[in-house]
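Input structure tokens:
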């Protein structure tokens, strides 16, 4: 099949990811053109006329966001992030989300096929190397900067005509957002605390009130719990130097996939502060480093649907009950490493995701005779 593939990259990580996904399609015999950019509607339509693809695949853009997209051509939107987009406005012929919980955001989707399609990994980059262990734990990820004076003093609503500032509700917002795993209801919150959110909250403020709060507090709580087990921790990412309690563990930012592969393997265990199937979880498993996943809030919200089981393919940290994590013996860590690597090779490489997309595409083309 001939595929036009675009993915708007704003970092070396995403540019490398584009190349890995493209290679996954090429490994199963597809001809792929495109780039780690998003074309405007006119340029995309010109490229379609020139290349004549069987379908267009775009990461983080849907058919509904393109003007005059050809009616007789299949568009596949693969959502890695939603940012401030309204799910109600998004549709493609095939629409994929990164996690199963995301599907709940599209209850009335116009997509002909809506499904979860998680990330994968690149076996040519993430592979075992002989390297000395330097740390018990490693953590890779961004944390938002601490709140500044201006952010804390934004008006978010009113109570009896008296302004309510961000700082007034921050503590309660943190508790609410964490308890609902970032699935937050503004209506319920304002009813509980007897005030009204402003009707015209900016997108940046909405982001801060939910996603930013969740990412900041969840990661801080998680790493503070891990510190009770061991202070042999390496942290990589951005903004950690702004937090006194974590600055001592901060080692910088890694922008090379090959360096990331080596750095992951410098620790006994790689930490993940959630219970989803994330890029770095699969990368670590591929290179033989055991991974921690946090205990899910719901019994059916686990990784078994992806062929991964607790204590067989990964370790679990109970952040809900703040239980101290115990590092298993080297023998157990080795078993988990080998078990996880095997599943990755069988189910979670980019060519596996490419095969899924091709199979779904063929079924839809046969059904609709597009």
């Amino acid at each position: 099949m001939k595929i036009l593939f675009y993915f708007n990259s704003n970092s070396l990580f995403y540019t490398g990811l584009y190349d890995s996904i493209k290679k996954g399609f090429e490994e199963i015999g597809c001809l792929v053109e495109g780039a780690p950019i998003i074309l405007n509607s006119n340029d995309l339509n010109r490229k379609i006329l020139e290349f004549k693809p069987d379908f267009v695949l775009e990461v983080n853009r849907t058919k509904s966001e393109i003007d005059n997209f050809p009616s007789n051509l299949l568009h596949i939107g693969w959502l890695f992030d939603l940012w401030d987009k309204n799910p109600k406005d998004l549709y493609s012929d095939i629409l994929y989300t990164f996690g199963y919980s995301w599907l709940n955001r599209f209850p009335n989707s116009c997509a002909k096929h809506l499904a979860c399609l998680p990330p994968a990994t690149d076996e040519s980059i993430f592979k075992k190397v002989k390297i000395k262990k330097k740390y018990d734990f490693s953590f890779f990820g961004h944390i938002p900067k601490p709140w500044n004076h201006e952010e804390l003093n934004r008006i978010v609503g009113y109570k009896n005509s008296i302004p309510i500032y961000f700082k007034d509700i921050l503590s309660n917002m943190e508790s609410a957002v964490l308890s609902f795993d970032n699935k937050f209801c503004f209506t319920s919150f304002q009813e509980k605390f007897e005030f009204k959110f402003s009707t015209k909250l900016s997108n940046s403020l909405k982001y801060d009130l939910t996603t930013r709060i969740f990412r900041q507090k969840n990661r801080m709580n998680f790493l503070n719990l891990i510190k009770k087990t061991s202070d042999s921790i390496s942290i990589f990412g951005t903004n950690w130097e702004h937090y006194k309690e974590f600055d001592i563990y901060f080692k910088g930012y890694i922008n090379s996939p090959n360096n990331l592969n080596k750095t992951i393997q410098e620790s006994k265990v790689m930490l993940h502060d959630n219970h989803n199937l994330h890029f770095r979880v699969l990368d670590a498993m591929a290179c033989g480093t055991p991974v921690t996943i946090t205990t899910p809030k719901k019994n059916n919200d686990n990784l078994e649907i992806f062929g991964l089981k607790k204590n067989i393919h990964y370790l679990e940290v109970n952040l809900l009950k703040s239980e101290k994590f115990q590092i298993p013996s080297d023998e157990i860590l080795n078993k988990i490493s080998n078990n996880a690597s095997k599943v990755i090779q069988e189910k979670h490489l980019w060519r596996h995701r490419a095969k899924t997309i091709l199979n779904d595409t063929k079924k839809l083309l046969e059904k609709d005779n597009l």
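The chain has a mean pLDDT of 93. Residues 28 and 48 are 22 Å apart (CA to CA).
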